[in-house]
Amino acid sequence: MSRSLRWGIGLLLIAGLLLGAFFFLPFRSWLPGGTVGNVPTREVVNGTLFNRLFPAPQAGEQLVFTQEKRGFSQARLKQGAEVRALLSISDVASSPASRNKFMHTEERLQSWPLVDQGSQASALLVADRFQVKVIGQGSGLDEQQRHELLGAFDLQSLAALNPSVVQAPAIPSGREALPPGQQAPLRLPLPGMQRQAPQAQPSQARAPQGAAPRKPSLFSFNRAKAALEPAA
Amino acid sequence: MSATVLERLERLPRRNLTVLALRGISTLVPGGWQNQTSPEALISDVLGSDDLDLVQQVRARADELSRARHEGYRRALSLYDAVNRSQKAAGGLRVLANVAGALPLVKRLAVLTPASQTLQAVDLSLKVAAEMLAFTQVNGLPGDSFAAFGDSLREYSGEARVRMAALVCFDALLPLGDNALHRLDGLLGQVGSRELHQLPSYAGMASLLPGRGDAAHLSFMRRGVDQWLGWADGFVGELGLSGQRAVRALETTIGPWHGGMEQLATFLDAFTDTYSHTGVQAVARRLVERAAAEI
Predict the structure, then answer these.
(1) Phi and psi dihedrals of A230, rounded to 5?
(2) Greater pLDDT, A80 or A115
(3) One domain for residues A50 and A109
(4) Which of B262, B260, B294, B290 is nearest to B5 (CA)?
(5) A154 with A196, same domain?
(6) Structure pTM?
(7) Is residue A127 situated within a structural domain?
């Protein structure tokens, strides 16, 4: 094999590897603008968890789920063919500005701040994290009816979904149980590493915000799993 | 950067052939149809209030949502655009073939153009598949069970009744005849990968369809159409749709038509974009409903 041929093959290989790295590695997800407000999706509570917290429809009514995304779930309350209201739960992590309107309100519903927006919408901020909203459609709902609908959501379970409420004491030995060197998982920008980080990360990053019922929720389960995995 | 969903809504035509065709077909659908092209009007309709400040907040939020790549609102629109482009290309070819067929020297060209019924069936099933993909892009997978998902899908198609009526009439009843929906599965059975590749929209959509290879895509399309057929059959029966009625409804707005139904379908394919027009409106409504809930 001649010398120039060897050089040629070597250069081809290098060029191929570089091109492959550029086209096949998922660089795209590192670019800004992929998610709403550039908030990483793992810091937003998934909309699937909201579905079972919607109020049960009364006789003659029907609840049809229409949208479910990361941090958002929406359903329509229908009576026959007519849409009475849009019911929704959203995580304000991706829309921090929506929190501002609750600052000046004195109204409370089950101790959570309540705001009316325009003539057909009422919103409730639960656990400083989740916005529950009822928007009257068609012939509309009066204030009383909207507030009753807001109260019919499972607000306690919703508050328990807040990841910053479920604090370390839920599993006291959670951090110590990790072997030395893995207590704070490094967040290198490698695709494979990202999968480990989210389970331990969100609850440690935030300071505790007031005392709230500490229920063993899905998040504490994840933390327990994160603590067990390295040992196994 | 391309336009956001609400900007696309603003740019939709207020009066052209597409709007006239839709207005014509909407006479068959109870409840009628409004050519909604103003984001502000749409927002205040959803919100039930004209408060300018609130409307602006919703608009800003909607633009932020549609700019986020992971949210899929714009991906749904690009799906509609892909289907629309191919429909126009194929329709244009067929119009050309019709014209050429009348000229003695270039008569042979007419034989070459794909106008067969199987191709029309594939075109329809691609549209239905695009509709389902766009639904999941826009709405996610709502509900916790398959039944809830089915309800949600029905709700979506019921909301856009004129859109569905246009799809059924322009892409099934006019080109394939009144028993189109019953023949569709049989026609799709005859489709091979050669026919599939003759459709420009397939090249655009292939990467978005689940599965690898033409056979997997075909079986996905057949399953998608199967589900849709159940609904569409009831819809056609409920409204009493037929090719004749569609032609008569169209004549009220477009003017008298003396050709055959197939030619009318070709003409509509080539010169209107009803599919992407109503698609933008449907996506915009869902987007605004979300934005209104999040402000």
Answers:
(1) -65, -30
(2) A115
(3) yes
(4) B290
(5) no
(6) 0.77
(7) yes
pLDDT tens digit sequence for B76-116 = 898 888 888 888 887 887 787 777 776 766 665 555 554 57
Classify residue A5: in a domain, yes or no: no
Is the CB of residue B135 less than 8 Å from the CB of residue B156?
A: yes
- Splitting chain B (295 residues) into consecutive groups of 10 residues, what average pLDDT does each group show? 86 92 89 88 90 92 89 87 84 78 62 65 85 85 75 77 88 86 84 78 76 84 82 87 90 86 85 91 93 92
Please indicate, yes or no, whether residues A116 and A222 belong to a single structural domain of this protein.
Answer: no
**In what helix (H) or strand (E) does residue B290 lie, and over which residues does it extend?**
helix B274-294
Same domain, A134 and A217: no
Place of tokens 């309800």: B151
Q: Which two tokens stand for residue B265?
A: 């379908």
- A66 and B49: CB-CB below 8 Å? no
**What's chain B's Rg over C-alpha atoms?**
19
Is pLDDT at A123 greater than 50 in this prediction?
Answer: yes
**What ipTM was reported for this prediction?**
0.80
Last residue of a domain, one of A129, A160, A191: A160
Q: Is residue A72 situated within a structural domain?
A: yes
Domain CATH for A69:
3.40.1000
In a domain, A22, yes or no: no
CB within 8 Å: A48 and B294:
no
Total domains in the fold of chain A: 2
Q: Which of A162, A147, A145, A136 is nearest to A108 (CA)?
A: A147
- For B128, residues 6+ apart whose C-beta sits below 8 A from its C-beta are B167, B221, B224, B225, B228
Q: Are A156 and A205 in the same domain?
A: no
Same domain, A156 and A50: yes
Domain boundaries, position A119 = 43-160
If interface means Cβ-Cβ distance under 8 Å, which residues of chain A face chain B? 33-37, 41, 47-48, 51-52, 64-70, 72-76, 86, 88, 90, 94-95, 97-98, 117-121, 131, 133, 135-137, 140
